[in-house]
Design goal:
The chain has about 240 residues and is mainly α. The protein contains ten helices and no strands. Keywords: Chaperone.
């Protein structure tokens, strides 16, 4: 395999992760909008491509398949109401905040993640009024770190790419994996639509798989550093969960 193809394999994995973290952050940050619904309704990948061994993505594909026959404005209103009931208020609401699930003082949890955000140049105040331990913001941090890793790989700066991957591994272990699996289980029980039930499953599936993905990427980049050559591709199968 040529060095160009080896590098391309790692970049493809990184870009898939970037897309998935961005998609999930958007979904938890705000209600599903009409433009995104229309995008999903016309998505060739959602309509035709098989899900990568993901029950959650299969559910989202089934939801997207029904959009072509649905009144999208009505679907948008229904999902907006469900979003509010799930995450904002309601008898069956679930809390998308780390501090709620880790039984920590909210200020302590917020201060810890805020320090990490500031170190990575993530300005939480822009476009988001939520506390810093909100799931959408934690996912956005991972998206930003994925982008930094992509930029470093494109510049053949493997040591910076390695540091970015190690930060992702640490944040995933210390924060997201400490509470999101329980949150996803609660969300799946509370959700009414196939879309939000699918999102709950996809989130849990993706984060569990990403732990393995990051470790494989770290080992591949380390091999590249030690050999002085571009690292080999660590993955040979689809790890993309983001529709589109």
């Amino acid at each position: 395999m040529s060095e160009r193809r080896e590098r391309a394999g790692i970049l493809e994995t990184l870009r898939d992760r970037y897309a998935t973290y961005g998609f999930l952050s958007r979904i938890y940050r705000e209600e599903l909008t009409g433009p995104l619904l229309r995008e999903m309704a016309g998505s060739a990948s959602l309509q035709d491509a098989p899900a990568p061994d993901s029950e959650g993505l299969t559910m989202i594909q089934e939801f997207a398949g029904g959009l072509q026959r649905a009144d999208l404005e009505e679907v948008e209103w229904d999902l907006a109401a469900e979003y509010a009931g799930l995450f904002l208020s309601g008898a069956h609401s679930v809390s998308p905040y780390e501090s709620v699930y880790t039984s920590r003082v909210m200020q302590e949890a917020r201060d810890e993640v805020l320090k990490i955000y500031m170190g990575e140049g993530l300005e939480v105040s822009q476009g988001c009024n939520e506390p810093e331990d909100h799931l959408a913001i934690e996912l956005e941090l991972m998206r930003r770190l994925c982008q930094k890793t992509i930029d470093s790989m494109e510049q053949d700066d493997l040591r910076t790419a390695l540091r970015c991957l190690e930060r992702q591994e640490q944040f995933l272990a210390r924060h997201l994996q400490a509470w999101v699996p329980r949150f996803c289980a609660d969300m799946e029980k509370a959700a009414r639509s196939g879309f939000y039930k699918g999102i709950a499953k996809v989130t849990g599936e993706f984060l569990a798989l990403d732990k393995e993905t990051i470790r494989e990427l770290i080992e591949a980049v380390k091999d590249g550093i030690s050999s002085g050559a571009p690292p080999p591709p660590p993955l040979s199968h689809d790890r993309r969960f983001a529709p589109g």
